[in-house]
Every structure is written in C-alpha cells, then in structure tokens.
Amino acid sequence: MRKEHVAAGAPRDTPPGFPRGVGGKGEGEPPAGGTRRRSAERGLYQLLIELPRPRRLRIGALGRCSLPAGYYVYTGPAQGGLAGRVGRHLRGGGKRHWHIDYLLAAATVRCAITLPGGRVGECAWHARARTLMADVAGAREPVRGFGASDCRCTSHLLYAPRWPLGALLTLLPGG
Question: What pLDDT digit, counting tens, does each position of 44-76 carry?
Fold first, then answer.
C-alpha cells in the first residue's frame, strides 16, 4: 500500500507543522506545448480545512448546520481519480454536489492527504483519523451524516479547535 502526501495552497499564515512549498497554485499545469493529463487512479483523500470564524451553513439535504471556527478533517473517496477530485476541491467554485462543497465555499483547504488504491475503505480511514484525534481537546464529529449518506458512519467530518496535523502524522508516508 502506497501513501502519498499532497499539500496545497500554503499561505503565509500556515499553521505550525504544515509542509510549506508543496502543492498549491501552478502545479498540475500542462507542460509547454502539451496537454493536461488527469490521473484516473482511484483512492481516498483527507482534506485538512480551516474555517476562520463560526458559520451557520446550509449543507445540502442536511439543512442548516452551525460550525465553530477551527479545523476540520474530511475523508472522501475518489472513484473517478484522485487528481481530479482533490484538484476540484482545491480550485473551489463550481456546482455544489457533495456535502464538502458547501463547507469549502466558506473555508480553506490547508492540506490534502491522499491514499491511492482501494485496500483501505473510506470508513476505516476516517475511523483511524478519529482515533488519532481523540487526544486533541475538543475534537468531535460536528455534523451527523456529513459525507456519510451512503454508509452507517455517524459522519466523515471531524472538527478540532486547534491545528490537528500533529495528531494525523501517522497517516503520512513513514508515519
């Protein structure tokens, strides 16, 4: 099983522990004289997201949800290809199709972790992240059913009031 870490859009105010200079704007551009190629490799991804202030958002069929300021970890599948799915979330805009699209309209992706292949299930990877974040004070699943309308999980979204990357480092290569 191969793990891959992709960080995106590191701003000047990057939280501690964020790997600067990896990913972000400009990557994925077509080579000179060439065309952009999308990887159709399936897999899973986790987005580490910052919501700078408390918000009450309408999240599709879930309705209006109150979300505190802080950091969120979303686990999702990329059946049509990791590069395309993660790229879509990093670009933003576009039609709101998934629960995560509604949150990302008000928040910023700080980091993306990808897990190519299909050996680990989405629910299992989310459960692993939830276990790793158990020691982060205030960590919880803030919205029942978020990203989990096709499974029996409570949610595929985690919340932490402070930057949780340290708790998630074992999800990265060599962790």
Answer: 999 999 999 999 999 999 999 999 999 999 999
Amino acid 163: pLDDT: 87
Handedness of CA 119, 121, 124, 130 (dihedral sign): positive
d(CA 129, CA 111): 14
Q: Per-residue pLDDT tens for 10-26? A: 333 434 433 333 333 33
Cα separation, 155 vs 35, in Å, equals 38
Extended beta strands in the chain, E state:
4-6, 43-51, 55-58, 64-67, 70-78, 108-116, 157-160
User: What is the C-alpha to C-alpha distance for residues 38 and 78, in angstroms, rounded to an integer?
Assistant: 13
Say if CB 116 and CB 42 are below 8 A apart. Answer: yes
> Which pTM does this prediction carry?
0.76
Query: By C-alpha distance, which of 95, 98, 2 is closest to 44?
Result: 2
Q: What is the pLDDT of residues 89-99, one digit of tens each?
A: 999 878 999 99
Instruction: Give the gyration radius of the chain's Cα atoms.
Output: 16
